[in-house]
Amino acid sequence: MKRTRMAAAPARISGNARKPRGQGHERVEEILAIAKAMFLAEGFDAVTTRRLAERVGLSQAGLYVYFKSKEEILDALCQRAYETTLSAFRRIEEEVSDDLERFRRTLRVFVEIGLDHPEEYQIIYMRPRALLYGLGEGPGRGARESRGVQVVRWQHDLVRRLIRTGVFRTMNAKVACQVALFAPHGLIAKLIAWPDFPWAQRDALIDATIECLVAGFLAPGCVSSSRKPLKDGHE
Amino acid sequence: MKRTRMAAAPARISGNARKPRGQGHERVEEILAIAKAMFLAEGFDAVTTRRLAERVGLSQAGLYVYFKSKEEILDALCQRAYETTLSAFRRIEEEVSDDLERFRRTLRVFVEIGLDHPEEYQIIYMRPRALLYGLGEGPGRGARESRGVQVVRWQHDLVRRLIRTGVFRTMNAKVACQVALFAPHGLIAKLIAWPDFPWAQRDALIDATIECLVAGFLAPGCVSSSRKPLKDGHE
DNA sequence: TTGAACACTGAGCAATGATCAGTTATGGGT
DNA sequence: ACCCATAACTGATCATTGCTCAGTGTTCAA
Q: A41: distance to nearest CA of chain B, Å?
């Protein structure tokens, strides 16, 4: 009868029983599942550790048995989101052999995943943080960041190869890679940040963004077979 | 960044004397100037109202004589940022007669102002709210937003004109305008959000982004006289 | 000189993320 | 059947945050 507080026993989503001896990792999963739902629904800042703990069925301090900080819970979720993107990239590499088409498909799937999981995208790519590029100090830090590095490097390598094979014009590869990140990121970020703005059709914007990049990068003589033109309609 | 508590009054930047009767507006200016410096140096969240007040030479509560909230201090700074951008646009329109070159210069100055005022840019363009397009409720809100609408419409009109005059290829103007917003926004947002990422040279990124857009939009036969090529160097 | 409007302060509130000394339950070893 | 080390967890409490409010001093027109 210690903890039972009948008055305030609200919506404990999962088993709130004390975990058996070796099953602490289940708590980790529960915390992550509920944290993800709450972060997506309310945003990271709006979720307090007290409310999160309450929904998990723990005291607030109990969270700190499994995570060093609130931020670390977010980090764990980011790790998994990287996996989603990476596996989509890998599938494209298997399914498509033409590098230029891979470039298109890779950008497109990146945008689509971002728009389909806006809150996760915000968490990973729109928060000011230095998570991606392997400058971490902590021990676990490095492994976690390398996932993010892979996502960036994937597109990087693709662009490099397209330049080297002469499909894209000769240009500074690092600059080109980063430019090829900006436009998709801008598209996702804008659509997420201003969802009520009178945007054009989502697919038209994605197509146009990608084709604009391709047109800007393509070597003078080179014309892609599967080139989709920018929409020609007026207004 | 820990507070190294000085024994007494540390670094009061401006006159900390009590203002005479009608001179409260001077305090407003002082608060804004110091707040701007601190926001840029440390970031909005890292600046506490107590430290801000201390530097201004006021008690923390004294800030609330002039501003309803910490957020409102930032809002006031944002208002001025709109003005900065708009007047830069106007000067370009005066100084440059070629529309394509206006397009380049307009995008460039937008990016430069964004990167030079990251805190304001984040608040204005990266927040998940509808600040820009006139859906505000509050009284002063409307006037503030209309400034933002002007900034967006300026680029919009420019792109429309370039399509109409045949410099840009025939395409859906709305889509093109929005694509022309995404890439610069992506550039600014990425550089702000991940300041420590190993980005290429800032100017190279701006040039490449703009030239990529131009190349993507330019009508097939049209070659601009002042066309800067993408950098040709390797690595 | 007066008194109302103004400029400003000190104390304090509720909420936050984090810490820590303790408490309870578990289960392998005996 | 009973240890008892320890994993799992709690209650109390911390410092810090943005913000409020009752009140104190100051200024200046009348």
A: 14
Helices vs strands, H then E, count in chain B = 9, 0
Distance of CA B213 to the CA centre of its chain: 20
Pairwise CA distance, residues B97 & B187, whole Å: 26
- Among A48, A168, A209, smallest CA distance to B184 is for A209
Interatomic CA distance for residues A17 and A58, integer angstroms:
9
Residue with CA nearest C1' of nucleotide C25: A18
Q: Which nucleotide has the least CA–C1' distance to B57?
A: C8
The minimum CA-CA distance between A24 and chain B, rounded to whole Å, is 34
Residues whose CB falls within 8 Å of the CB of residue A35, separated by 6 or more in sequence, listed in order: A47, A52, A73, A74, A77
Residue of B nearest to A179 (CA): B209
What count of Cα atoms within 13 Å lies in the side-chain half-sphere of residue B211?
A: 20
Mean pLDDT of A2-17: 41
Which chain A residues in 202-231 lie under 8 Å from chain B, judged by CB atoms?
204-205, 208-209, 211-217, 230-231
pLDDT value at B227 more than 60: no
Q: Provide, rounded to the nearest whole percent, the portion of chain A with pLDDT above 70.
A: 77
- C-alpha distances (whole Å) from B73 to each of A115, A174, B123, B195 are 32, 39, 12, 24
Q: Which pLDDT tens digit goes with each residue over B58-109?
A: 999 999 999 999 999 988 888 888 888 999 999 999 999 999 999 999 999 9
Mean predicted lDDT score pLDDT of chain B:
80
pTM: 0.78
Q: What is the pLDDT of residues B7-31, one digit of tens each?
A: 333 344 444 666 766 666 788 999 9
Token couple for A75: 């980090």
Quick one: pLDDT at residue A13?
45
The β-bridge partners of A218 are: A168
In B29-68, the residues whose Cβ lies within 8 Å of chain A are: 43
Strands (E), chain A: none
The string of pLDDT tens digits covering residues A68-77 is 999 999 888 8
Q: Are B224 and B218 in contact (CB under 8 A)?
A: yes
Those residues whose beta carbons lie under 7 A from strand C are A 2, 17-18, 20-22, 47-51, 60-61, 64, 68-71; B 17-24, 27, 53, 57-62, 65
Place of tokens 């529309």: B99
DSSP A92-158: HHHH---HHHHHHHHHHHHHHHHHHSHHHHIIIIIS----SSS---SHHHHHHHHHHHHHHHHHHHH
Cα Rg of chain A, angstroms: 22
**CA–CA separation, B65 vs B68, rounded Å?**
8
pLDDT confidence of A152, banded at 50, 70, 90?
confident
